[in-house]
Each structure stands twice: as structure tokens, then as C-alpha cells.
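Extended Data, panel c. Modelled sequence:
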Amino acid sequence: MKKTLLYTAILLFAYSNGHTHPLQKGKVKKITVIDHVIEKNYVPLTEIVSIDNTPTTDKDKKVETFLSRFDFKYHSNGQINSIKSYSIQQGEPVYPFTLFPVVTASNQLQAVKLGTDGRSCDLTIENNLLQQVKYTDYRFQDSNQCDYTYNEKGLPMQAILSSTIKGTHPITIAFDYDKVSNVKTMLYNNEQTQYTYDNKVYALSCLPFSFTVSNFFSNEALMYTTYKQKNNVTKYENNDYTVTITYTYNQNNYPLTAKLTTVSKRGDATPRVNYEYEFHYKDIEIINEKG
């Protein structure tokens, strides 16, 4: 099973574990941030299409492991500077991609710049609420966008996905929330997805905007909005399958590892581990120089 990506090209992965708050001049504050994330994707050999049609020589091998890594860099004030994602093949990084979130002095997302020519990601923000994300690929004269509406609490209630690709039609995604404002249900193309959470701290909740490393951890349609997820998803369920996520945590109740196990509702019901994640942190010191 592959991840469900709504607009993969602009939904890259990053997060930080510490708010940056105003400090008195010269004061030092230590914050914990994510240094890198490692993703292991386990794909059955029966689902892999070989370009050269060369069969595997390992008769006992049932799955192929694909590795990805996500590296995070920060400004001296602790705010996120860049997020670089890449695959790892034979121990070497391949297919690198970098994005640069632009955050204001008040720690609000203002723009997202892509580290590549020919493509752009444009945000429309009004009254500190994201109104639209538009991704444009100038090479193919193609664009996709997502438009948002909010309730009285400032929570996204609808996301409308549309594309300039001929023959496509807008898709409306609706959200419902639990008592602590985590997304409880999502309605996408008349299919409902339900989310169950733990009582630990969601590692990305300290960012000033919504971000995720997987659509199973948090809904990708809410990327870059001010949606503040509080806890970690432990179950992701729709009409096709159920995904159970098992975590280990550090002493501060942040996830260290996550294992995603899937059970199909329409085929083989044998539980299958699809993904495993490792979260690596570091402490950095920020100094207020302006006062």
C-alpha cells in the first residue's frame, strides 16, 4: 500500500519541537528540534515493477525496503530554515529536494519557496489564515490548488482541491474535530476516514503551521494551515483498510519511533507492516540580540 498523497509535489516533510518566544536581550534559551527523520518503506516484491524485468535472485526475500531521509536546518532564532528530503540508495542520497519556509518575526508562515526551477508554491494568507495553496509546474503548464474555508474557531472546515488538468473536477474535503480540536473525521469523495489519537504530544504541534511526514500521521490537505494537532494518530481507518500506528516515546512524551501496520478490508486481511519511522532530535540555543 502506498501513501495517499493529495498534492505530493509540494507536501514535503518537516517539523520542529520548540516554539520561539520573545526573549530579553542577551538571554539564552535552549529548545529541542528535530534533526532528521528516517523512513523505511516495506514494499512486497509482487508490487514492484522492474524497469529491466530482471527478477530478484533472493528467493526468500518477500519485501524490498526503500529508505528516505529528511534533514532540517534552522535559523539562529530557532525558526525552521530549510527542509531537505531525499532517497537513500546504496548508502548514497539521490533525488534531493529542498523547500524553504518563510516565517515572519512573529513566527507565522508567510511563504514557501521551492529549491528548484520550473515550479512554484504560492500561498494566499488573509488575517493569518491560509486561504489558498497553489502549486504551478511551468514546464508542463500545469497547476493545482487548494482553497480553504474556516469555522468560527479558525479551524479549516473545507478544503477544495482543483487542477488545470483537462477532465479533472474539483474535490471537496470536509473535516470534523474532537473536543481538543484534533481532526476526528475526514470526508473525501463521499468516503469517511476516522482518526484515533493517543494522549501524548504530537511532535509537529510546535510549528506555527500544520506539517506532517506522512498522511497517516496528520492530514496532508491541511498542510500550511494554522491547524494545531495536539496528539498522535494511533489509528487511521476508512472503507478500504485500517492502519494502526505503534509508537515509542522519549521522556518528554515525543515519539522516537513509529510502526505502521495495515489490515485490508477488501482483500487479504493479514496484518502487514508498511512503514517504520525514526525521529532524531537535537538541542539548540537561541540568543535574543535585539532586545
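Confidence is low (pLDDT under 50) at residues 1-23, 51-55. This feature is highlighted in the accompanying rendering.
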